Amino acid sequence: RFKAAEGLLSKNSLRMLGMAGLFHDVGKARIPEEILNKPAKLNDREHQVIKTHPLEGYRIMTSQVGLDPNVMRGVIEHHERYDGTGYPRGLSGGEIGLYGRVLSIVDVYDALTSKRAYKNAMPAFNALGMMYQWRDTTFCPTGVEHFIKCIGVYPNGSFVKLSNGCHAITIDNSGDNAARPKVRILFDAAMRPVPKPEVDLAKEDVDHGLHIIECLDPADYRMDLTRVMESAQTSPEIVSA
């Protein structure tokens, strides 16, 4: 459950937050495709057009009868920034609703870690590092810290190097130690495929056991991590600590 400053959200509030997340970018349906999918940096005019999508999304959502007002507020406020530098209304601090504050964090994380027509995806670990630097300006206080606690220091699917030189992907970070998730080892130190054992790093010796030493960018290895992960689902060997 998401813990906000006001306390734990109810199931209904979480459901509404999820709905706001699903529809937060619906306004992009009204943005010209040549701007939305332009494989280069937008010029000033195009940037002003793209900045209208939260308001367009709000207008679309107002046509839905009986929709929770907080959902519509989340849609229009997901690009507002805590320091007042966001859009479309330049809100700041407590002027931004809870859903908008949450969605702004998730939206930035998604933007950084997703491949777009104009950029490659950034490894999750690097994205979280950048967002942590912005925690006191762009986002609400403790918001980024809560987000990292929810998804882990090494979010599921992160490509990592272990202390024994092997390479692995993280598969479960739901444990108490965010820096020691469960991983599935895919390659040895020379990037040769190996049997796919699962290891719970939280059960390894703190001082001398296996642990993550580096988060890697799959693009540097010309690797389609999605295919690798799908392949890794086949009969993994379970290894106890």
Descriptive report:
The chain is of the alpha+beta class and 241 residues long. The chain is 35% helix and 13% strand. It has a six-stranded mixed β-sheet with strand order 7-3-4-5-6-8, with helices on one face. A two-stranded antiparallel sheet has the order 1-2. The radius of gyration is 20 Å and the shape is globular. The two termini are 30 Å apart.
List keywords for this structure.
241 residues, alpha+beta, 6-stranded mixed beta sheet, two-stranded antiparallel sheet, disordered N terminus
Let me know the average pLDDT: 88
> In whole angstroms, how far apart are the ends?
30 Å
Q: In what order do the strands lie side by side in the largest sheet? A: 7-3-4-5-6-8
Main sheet record:
6 strands, mixed
Helix content: 25-40%
Beta strands, count: 8
Strand content of the residues, in percent?
5-15%
Instruction: Give the helices and strands as they follow along the chain.
Output: EEHHHHHHHHEEEEEHE
Shape: globular
Rg result: 20 Å
Low-confidence stretches: 1-6, 235-241
